[in-house]
UniProtKB/TrEMBL annotation:
Pfam families: FAD_binding_6, Globin, NAD_binding_1. Its cofactor is heme b; FAD. Residues 1-138 form the Globin domain. GO terms for biological process: cellular response to nitrosative stress; nitric oxide catabolic process; response to toxic substance. This is Flavohemoprotein. Consists of two distinct domains; an N-terminal heme-containing oxygen-binding domain and a C-terminal reductase domain with binding sites for FAD and NAD(P)H. GO terms for molecular function: FAD binding; heme binding; metal ion binding; nitric oxide dioxygenase NAD(P)H activity; oxygen binding; oxygen carrier activity.
Amino acid sequence: MLNEKNIQIIKSTVPVLEVHGTAITKRFYERMFTQHPELLHIFNHANQKQGRQQTALANAVYAAAVHIDNLAEILPVVKQIGHKHRSLGIKPEHYPIVGENLLAAIKEVLGDAATDEILGAWAEAYGVIADAFIGIEAEMYEQSREQVGGWADFRPFIVEKKVQESDVITSFYLVPQDGQALATFEPGQYISVKLEIPGERYTHIRQYSLSDAPGRPYYRISVKREEANAEKPAGIVSTYLHEGIREGDVLQLSAPAGDFTLEQSEAPVVLISGGVGLTPMFSMLASLAEKQQRPVTFIHAAQNGQKHALRAEVERLAKDNPQISAYWCYSEPTEQDREAGAFHKEGYLDAEWLEQVAPEKNASYYFCGPVPFMSAVKKALTERGISAERMHYEFFGPAASL
C-alpha cells in the first residue's frame, strides 16, 4: 500500500494530468514502441494512429490518480481493461516495460516539474496499480484455461462458413481445428482474432463481438469492412477478412472475454444498435429468446436496407417469440426501402421516437455502435428520465467518453 505522503503527492498531480495526460501517453507509446517494437505485434496500430489508445490510457491514468487512496473505486474499469489484456495476451512481464516508459514520458513532458519526489511517488503507485492488474488478469487466464472447452492464449479455428449479411458486413462461422469442446460465453462478449497478413510487418489482433447465442457448435463473428474516408484509411484487418479469408482457412482466436453482458433481472430489456454495433445486441437477443420470457424491444439504426445485417434473423425471432418486438430506423432509405415499407423511422433516433417504441421507464437499456450514435442514444435516454444505472453500453476499441 502507498503511504500517506505519496498518496498526497499523486493527488497533487491530478490537475497536471488533466492538462498534459494525452501528451504524456503519446510520448509513452512512442518511447515504448521504439525500444520494444515486438509489442507492435499486440497493439492495434489503427487506434494508435487515430489517438484513441493514447486518450484512453490518459483517462485511465487520470482516474487512478484521482482514486489513488481508494482504488476499489476504479475496480470495474480495471476488470474491463483486464478482459481486453487477457484477450490480447498481455502478460506480467509486460508491466515493467510499461512502467519504465510511462515514468520516462512523464519526466520528458513535464520537465523540471517532474521532481524526483513526484517520480518516486508515481513509481510506487504504478507498482500498486500494476499488481492489481496482474492479479486480476491471472484469475482471468486461469478461468479461461480451466473452463470446459477453454484455453489460454490463442487456439486455431477453421472458417467453416462465410456469409455476406449486407453490402458491408460478412459473418464468419468458426469451429475449433482440433474438434474438441468449445467454451461457452456470455452474450455480449467478444473474441480476439490474430492475423498474419501478407505484406504486413507485424501481427494484427482485432476484437470482434460474438454475434450469435451461446451453445452453438461454432462461434460467429460478423465483421464490417471498414472503408477509407476523410478521417481514416481502409481497415487493414477487416478488408483482409472480407477479401483474403476463405472457407477452410484457419484463424487464431482467444477465448471469449468482456464485461458487457446481460444482468440477471426480470425487468424488460431494450437493445439499441447502430451499424455493426448490432453484433453483441443480436447475441443478447438470441439468448433472451431461448432462455427467458422478459419483454424485449430490439431497435436497430442503419443507413438503409442494403447496409442492414441480420434483419431476417431478428424478424424470425420476433415472429416466433411474442415478447419480442423489433424496429428499424434508416437514415438514408433507398426507394426500394420506401416501396417495401422496410423501416419504421426515417432519419436518426431521437427521444420522442424512442418513447413511442420503448416507453418502459423500468427497462434495462443496452446500446452499442459508433461513438456519435451512442452519445445520441445516451442523450435521448437521459432526456426521457432513464437513470444511468439502467444504461449499459460498450465501445468498439479503447474506451471513450459519451
